[in-house]
Amino acid sequence: MSVHLCVGLVQISYLTQFGYLPEADRETGFLRTESQLRESIKNLQRFGNIPATGDIDDDTLELMSRPRCGIQDIPNFYKRRRRRFAVHGQKWHTTNLSWSLRTKNFNNSSLDYGRLRADLHRALQLWARHSRLTFAEVNSDNADILVYFEKGFHGDGYPFDGQGQVLAHAFFPGGGRGGDVHFDIEEPWQLTGDEENGNGVNLFVVAAHEFGHSLGLSHSSVADSLMYPWYNSNNDLSGEFDLSDDDRYGIQQIYGAKDRLWGKNTGDKPVHRWPLRPPTLAPPRGWDPQVPVTEKPRTTTTTTTPTTTTTRRTTTTASPWGTDSERPDTCNTAYDAVSIIRKEVYIFKGKYIWRLGNRGLYAGYPALTTRLWNNLPASLTRVDAVYERLDKKIVFFIGRQVYVFHGTNPLEGYPKQLTDLGLPRSVDKIDAAMVWGYNSRTYLFSGTMYWKFDEDEQRVELDYPRDMGNIWKGVGYNIDAAFQWKDGNVYFFKGKGFWKFNDRTMSVENKKPLQSSHFWMGCPAIDLNDTLGNEIPTDEPDTVGQSAFLAANLQNLLICFIISFVCRVYQR
Ligand SMILES: [Ca+2]
Ligand SMILES: [Ca+2]
Ligand SMILES: [Zn+2]
Ligand SMILES: [Zn+2]
């Protein structure tokens, strides 16, 4: 006997509202074939980047409980295997557009008109910065893009739903309502500068998303893109926020790139795997390559209690339109691998990467590693080590396998096995790999041992392995990552700390590890005392967030159980 799929009315309604089930099936959802219903659930799960089980499981309930945009998703996994931005098909036939904030419903609102306009302006500039579009503010009902704050039914057939769920919607380019943006006035909108007061919904981010629709973009299933349908309240906008690559490719496909720096736009696919210029952003605190990495003299007496739990940031610097339970906390994590790639620093953790340019951490990260290297296995959960060879090929170690890429293109003949490189069968993973500037030779680390690797022979040299303590003094064993930075020095990472290795003294410059997130990510410094790298502070569960989740899920579960019960009665 098969287990039947029972889906609650709330879920049927959700699947219909956001384009996963045809409107006509809203009432007759239970009469659909089970496989059709499962397929629509899977499409939602794929769009939301959660496991495509076809069941209304906990992940799915959580996804459905997140606040989001009211525009339907267009799940189309049949035509296009690569999930990325989608162009709606309607576009403006001029690149000089006008916009206007209309205030007919502002009587009861506490929103500050001037600061609201400033946020809307900034949101439009995100799109202007990366395309040929320009936006002029006017005070007129005839502007191309009219912005309204609306409540409940407001005359366009898409009623708002009070606080929560749907935050806003917009109309694709065209006459009449085309291009207009409606915000649900009942949301606790938060303007720039109000970040301190509580858990509001960030207006700037939602506006930037909705303007994407106004310009002709549909939803993207790329979790860290602005056009991802779900809002992440856990965002941090302290740095300068920017479009993700995905959003940029989308807007440039419709309206062209701003200048020749971006090269010729072919109009049908992303041209550059490696953006030619970094987004502008302020250098994070503590970022100064000129300042030597040395331990600060201790001016305070050490205490025995680590203060990490009180000073830890609970937000990430990721793009706000993505949440992922696997997404690492930028300010509180160990690293799996670190490497210079094309003169930039890439830091790997789990499925994610951060990217650091000359001016520090790029906006929009961490991003999925498989977005850049989409020929890595889709099942990738982590990489063990990464390094860039002198011939600029990029080598990934994942478990017992070795992948080599030219840019993002896989080299033929890979993946190879660790044993193909002459490593013993007992080595089940590489901890770190790097080219040492001292002699331009490649080194591999695993556990207590290290090998010198002959790039010409593509094999480890004969008189290895050796004990790490012989040469890498002060680093210890079982390191997480190592790389040679642009200052020519080798950096070793373990836990949440790192050491700088001095080639002249052949030992670490700092006996105690320094805080990785402070130096590399620009996170606030925390007093780590002696715990860093030895006894790693553990992540405290975010109990407030969890109970909020539970409450939201319980509401849905309750309905689910009732419906399940009805289903079972019917089956008898
Ligand atoms: Ca709402
Ligand atoms: Ca590693
Ligand atoms: Zn949307
Ligand atoms: Zn509306």
TrEMBL record:
SS bond partners: C331-C523
**Names of the cofactor(s):** Zn(2+); Ca(2+)
Q: Where does this protein hold Zn(2+) 1?
A: H154, D156, H169, H182
> From which residue to which does the signal peptide run?
none
Q: Which residues bind Ca(2+) 1?
A: E187
> For Ca(2+) 5, which residues are the binding ones?
A433
Q: Where does the chain bind Zn(2+) 2?
A: C69, H209, H213, H219, M227
User: Does Metal-binding show up as a keyword for this record?
Assistant: yes
Q: Name one GO biological process term.
A: collagen catabolic process
Keyword Disulfide bond carried by entry: yes
Q: Where, by residue number, does Ca(2+) 3 bind?
A: D161, G162, D184, E187
Q: Where is this region: Disordered?
A: 272-328
Which note does the record give on the cofactor? Answer: Binds 2 Zn(2+) ions per subunit. Can bind about 5 Ca(2+) ions per subunit.
Residue ranges with Low complexity bias: 299-317
Q: Where does Ca(2+) 2 bind?
A: D144, G178, D180
Q: Which family does it belong to?
A: Belongs to the peptidase M10A family.
Q: What is this protein called?
A: Peptidase metallopeptidase domain-containing protein
Organism (species): Lygus hesperus (Western plant bug)
